[in-house]
Design a protein that fits this description.
The complex is a heterotrimer of chains A (182), B (551) and C (118). By secondary structure, chain A is of the alpha/beta class. Chain A is built from 5 helices and 8 strands; from the N terminus they run ββββαββαβαβαα. Chain A has an 8-stranded mixed β-sheet with strand order 2-1-8-7-6-5-4-3. Chain B folds into 4 domains: 104 residues, Sulfite Reductase Hemoprotein, domain 2 (Alpha-Beta Complex); 165 residues, Sulfite Reductase Hemoprotein, domain 1; 92 residues, Sulfite Reductase Hemoprotein, domain 2 (Alpha-Beta Complex), CATH 3.90.480; 136 residues, Sulfite Reductase Hemoprotein, domain 1 (2-Layer Sandwich), CATH 3.30.413.10. Chain B starts with 5 loop residues before the first helix and ends with a helix. The relative contact order of chain B is 0.09. In chain B, β14 and β15 form a beta hairpin. Chain C has 118 residues and is an alpha+beta fold. In chain C, strands 1, 2, 3, 4, 5 and 6 form a 6-stranded antiparallel β-sheet that branches. Chain C has 3 helices and 6 strands; from the N terminus they run ββββαββαα. Chain C has one domain. Classes of the chains: A alpha/beta (182), B alpha+beta (551), C alpha+beta (118). Chains in contact: A-B, B-C. At the B-C interface, α14 of B face α2 of C.
């Protein structure tokens, strides 16, 4: 079984993939959890799930998150494939899946996945990674810790700087009030 | 000026550290050049003809003197003692070493400077009006919004791997000094009758291979909804643009392909789905940023200055006053344009000594503030009229007093084949030859406003599509030829220049420009600029003049 | 004839392959009869990913007893920017540089030079 890096908070561990990636014509092995293309899911998803297996979908960069909007509660995994790490479409798909459609399952980055994009991916809501550059969990955690602060709100729910500023100011005011016995 | 707080500074420090790691990994062979290239581009580091070039961001063209002095020091310590101000109001250093780049980044970060996102397929440095905060005709300080955009776009998690580069301009004046309609997004700030601020949002402008002027997709966007609207535009772009042909991946292509209406519809639909409060800044944060741009402690002065008027007895100073001094919103003050176009010099270049002298002058005479104009000139935004004679003398002493703003020798030219690995031909020697040919200040004044813009290749970094005379260097039969075009303008009356005729050899280009100027002078009516005469009489008389003796 | 050129990874400086090492001066560049002859050197250069970046072959021709790049772009690259003669390798002032400079100016007026073709 291929290994995946799974990130949870500030921990990253190597886990078994646990799913079989099926081509368009491949039969689904008995009892196996499978990942299929969007097209195959749309035609066979119900029957694949009927026997109790867990099913995931792999989206290509040109495919859109909207296509899965109604099926997300039933999906165990969504994989977003990076054809080339420079093609940023999966980032938008991830953001939409997490923030617009409320997807709470595992969101994987597969394909041309490099540790130098770790923090972008995590901030967009990915929580599992199949790196193509041989990097391991420690590399990914290091990469995600590079920025102590973030300017924008993201799918990772880190506090954006403008909220931190307001909180610091509020604290400052509260401290001042305490000091002056107000 | 906006002062970076601990959070802004932390971002720069962390960015520097990240880059240092990335460079180390590259030098050690742990990542390939293919993997490293977008990373170094996103820190402004290009591999050019002779060396690495570092493009340092000057956010919305505003510099403190401390920053200017640090740029001078970096140029002297790590480069060859000069820098080049670009048509995106950034500073380029042309001789940087990769192994020094992390140290350079640290030195820049100490004064709140960086090279973040000055290249790469991401949101670039925002251009704002170089006269912001000083001009009477603005409805707001556009730098407030440029700073809002800067923070939102820096290390953006979703939008750092766009189909292509993304450039935004913000202007708040009736007179646009940013060429906003040539931008991916141009934002025109206005106030309605109740005094509410709103943006006209224009999308899909761009120069390069296929120039376009931006189309308005929304007339009135409430200003405090700016970021969510930008979010919507860029998300549509990121998702819908082609990714198969690098020459068709700017947003201008998407807008042209979908059509303005459909593109606007998609943006509005996406915008409607963005949850309130997730992107737009709270009013408190907007107010905090706005507070950083509050007016300087201007003195109460008479609107006329005896010292200024008396100094005009010196003809050279009078000329400087005519061309380089602009009205300020506060009585007794002026905006001063500092030309980096002394005839015979490289347009936009500034030595470390000149930078340091200018910093001293800015400390004495301009509240320690300097601006960069996309025209590759600098600005001292707040100078007392009384101080102008002393300022002029100080500028003159370091070769920064050329009185040619917007005149024939105030030429925009990209670095071209002398520096740039993308170029087809040289641009700098053409600019020098033309400027020298028209070096006589009286002749230049007779000609009046004439904006010549020169690019060394179709990427149009010299803005040749927007030149009253646009000049594009091409490779014809293995030699440097120059295609001339007429009638471009980056002002509110924006227009793309029209090609005149067959490209002209390098050696004949200055005389061709002469012929164009003579044609204008012989046809012009009272008060007409070159552009006006061209718009009235068309291409034909100019074409005949240039090609009259063609073989 | 061909010469193999690249940029130093660490410094960005233009360098020329010269019998297994990288030389800074164009005049020291090893000449190959053709692309096939340069093959092994190019392959070696491409494997030196922590030494050089962007290795490629350029055409060179003989002009007045000196070898110079055929294209104007490569002449500028071998010399330095034309607007600042004190910057770049042209400031080193050796015989090969002088020949390059002379050839460059000569070629411009006769039109024999190719502009950007490598």
């Amino acid at each position: 079984m291929p290994m995946l890096i799974k990130v949870d908070g500030d921990q990253a561990v190597l886990v078994d993939d646990g799913f079989v990636l099926l081509g368009e014509e491949d039969p689904a092995p008995d009892g196996a959890d499978v990942i299929v293309s969007l097209a195959r899911f749309q035609s066979e998803g119900d029957s694949l799930m009927a026997c109790g297996r867990r099913v995931g979908v792999r989206l290509q960069p040109s495919e859109e998150a909207e296509a899965l909007a109604y099926d997300l509660p039933r999906l165990a995994v969504v994989e977003l494939r990076f054809d080339k790490f420079r093609d940023g479409r999966p980032y938008s798909n991830a953001v939409l899946l997490r923030q617009r459609y409320g997807y709470a399952g595992e969101l994987r980055a597969v394909g041309d996945v490099l540790r130098e994009q770790a923090q972008f991916m995590l901030r967009c809501g990915f929580d599992a990674f199949a790196p193509s550059d041989g990097s391991g969990p420690q590399d990914w955690i290091t990469a995600t810790r590079r920025y102590r602060h973030v300017y924008q709100a993201g799918a990772d729910h880190r506090t954006p700087i403008y909220v931190e500023r307001a909180a610091a100011k509020a604290d400052g005011v509260a401290k001042e009030e305490l000091e002056h016995g107000l | 000026m906006y002062r970076y707080d601990t959070y802004d500074k932390a971002m720069l420090t962390d960015r520097s550290n990240e880059f240092r790691h990335q460079v180390a990994r590259r030098l050690a062979g742990e990542i390939t050049e293919d993997q490293f290239k977008p990373l170094r581009l996103m820190n402004g580091l290009y591999l050019q003809l002779h060396a690495y070039m570092l493009r340092i961001a000057i956010p919305y063209g505003t510099l403190s003197t401390r920053q200017l002095r640090r740029l001078a020091w970096v140029a002297r310590t790590y480069d060859k003692g000069y820098g080049h101000f670009t048509t995106r109001t950034n500073l380029q250093l042309h001789w940087i070493k990769l192994r020094d780049a992390p140290d350079v980044m640290d030195a820049l970060a100490e004064v709140d400077l960086h090279g973040i996102q000055t290249s790469g397929n991401c949101i670039r440095n925002v251009t704002a009006d170089p006269y912001a905060g000083a001009t009477a005709d603005e409805v707001d300080d556009p730098r407030v919004w440029a700073e809002v955009i800067r923070q939102w776009s820096t290390v953006h998690p979703e939008f750092s791997y766009l189909p292509r580069k993304f450039k935004i301009a913000v202007t708040a004046s009736a007179k646009d000094r940013t060429a906003a309609r040539s931008y991916d997004i141009g934002l025109q700030l206005r106030r309605d009758r109740e005094g509410q601020l709103s943006f006209e949002v224009m999308v899909g402008g761009g120069q390069g291979r296929t120039p376009y002027l931006a189309k308005t997709i929304r007339e009135h966007l409430p200003a405090d909804r700016l970021l969510s609207y930008l979010d919507a535009i860029i998300r549509v772009y990121n998702r819908k643009s082609r990714r198969d042909n690098i020459h068709k991946q700017r947003i201008k292509i998407l807008v042209a392909t979908l059509g303005q209406e459909e593109f606007a519809r998609q943006v509005e639909a996406e915008w409607a789905k963005i949850e309130a409060g997730t992107v737009d800044l709270p009013d408190t944060e907007l107010a905090r940023i706005r507070g950083a741009f509050r007016p300087r402690a201007f003195e109460t002065l008479a609107s006329a200055s005896k010292a200024f008027e008396a100094a005009k007895a010196d003809l050279a100073f009078a000329r400087f006053a005519r061309h380089n001094v602009k009205p300020h919103k506060v009585a007794g003050y002026a905006i001063v344009d500092v030309s980096l176009k002394a005839p015979g010099e490289t347009p936009g270049d500034c030595s470390s000594e000149q930078m340091e002298a200018l910093a001293d002058l800015a400390d004495r005479h301009s509240f320690g503030e300097v601006r960069v104009n996309y025209t590759q000139n600098l600005v001292l935004p707040h100078v007392k009229l009384d101080d102008l004679p002393e300022l002029y003398a100080g500028l003159k002493a370091v070769g920064l007093a050329t009185s040619n703003i917007d005149l024939v020798s105030d030429i925009i030219a990209c670095p071209g084949l002398d520096y740039c690995s993308l170029a087809n031909a040289r641009a700098i020697p053409v600019a020098q030859a033309i400027a020298l040919r028209f070096a006589d200040p009286e002749r230049a004044e007779t000609i009046g406003e004439l904006k010549i813009k020169i690019s060394g290749c179709i990427n149009a970094c010299g803005h040749h599509h927007l030149g009253n005379i646009g000049i594009l260097g091409v490779d014809k039969k293995g030699e440097e030829f120059y295609q001339l075009s007429l009638g471009g303008s980056g002002d509110n009356d924006a227009s793309l220049a029209e090609i005149l005729g067959p490209a002209v050899h390098f050696s004949r280009t200055p005389e061709a420009v002469d012929a164009l100027v003579d044609t204008y002078l012989s046809h012009r009516r009272d008060g007409e600029r070159f552009l006006d005469t061209y718009r009235r009489i068309g291409l034909k008389p100019f074409k005949e003049a240039v090609y009259a003796n063609a073989d | 004839m061909k010469v193999l050129t690249a940029n130093s990874l660490a410094t960005g400086e233009v360098v020329f392959w010269s019998h297994g090492r990288w030389a800074k001066a164009f005049g020291e560049g090893e000449r190959f009869a053709d692309e096939a002859g340069a093959g092994p050197a190019l392959a070696a250069a491409e494997s030196q990913s922590t030494v050089v970046v962007a290795a490629y072959l350029i055409d060179v021709e003989e002009v007045d007893g000196h070898w110079v790049p055929v294209s104007y772009r490569e002449r500028i690259r071998a010399l330095g920017p034309s607007n600042t003669p004190q910057h770049g390798k042209q400031a080193d002032g050796d015989a090969d540089v002088a020949a390059l400079v002379a050839a460059t100016f000569a070629a411009r007026s006769t039109g024999r030079v190719k502009l950007i073709k490598r």
